Amino acid sequence: MTLSYGSLALYTTAFTFIYYFLLGIYNVFFHPLRHYPGPLLWRASPLPKNIYMLRGLYAKKAREIHETYQGTVRVAPNELSYIQPQAWKDILGRPLKSEMYKDMRFFGGDAFGRDSLVTTLPEDHTRMRRIFSHAFSNTALKAQEPLLIKYADQMVDTMGALASRNDARAVNIVDLFNFCTFDVMADLTFGEPLLLLERGDYHPWVH
């Protein structure tokens, strides 16, 4: 029996629909997280959350979900969202109790074959954190304060200049925070800024 392209496409579409329909039923009624509340479609499929993530509206929607269902809510078949302060201790660990292992599907795993401070295993985290700790001591932060103030003032001045323009062009304030952040990091690391705030545009290396 030879199938035409039309029949093959029809069978493939039907199989895909049935598969995801049954997967949605499993996620809602049989999944290990089935007892946690949340919107039905969000519990059945990761698609609603991904759509809100791509539109940049997930944080707002997550807050609405928490206001509706309270406490811990299920925002995707395999994801829970917490707002209780106690969750920080339960998830990130407490004295004499190790933290839970990170989900590398979220954190992205290692980069260039080496783990970062964010993705490393708990047993290596203390050693790596100790290396960075000197840069964030009170003495180091006080010494860096004039530099931080300089770029913060420059960012505020840039915001004021953009706000006083006599046109209706929109200003992407996220870009300004990125400019300030990368100028600070470049100055602290290399001894000179990338001049992003001054130029008002991204450096090719950053963008």
Automatic annotation (TrEMBL):
The keyword tRNA-binding does not apply. Its cofactor is heme. The keyword Iron applies. GO terms for molecular function: heme binding; iron ion binding; monooxygenase activity; oxidoreductase activity, acting on paired donors, with incorporation or reduction of molecular oxygen. The chain crosses the membrane at residues 6-29. Keywords: Heme, Iron, Membrane, Metal-binding, Transmembrane, Transmembrane helix. Belongs to the cytochrome P450 family. This is Cytochrome P450. It comes from Colletotrichum noveboracense. The lineage of its organism: Eukaryota, Fungi, Dikarya, Ascomycota, Pezizomycotina.
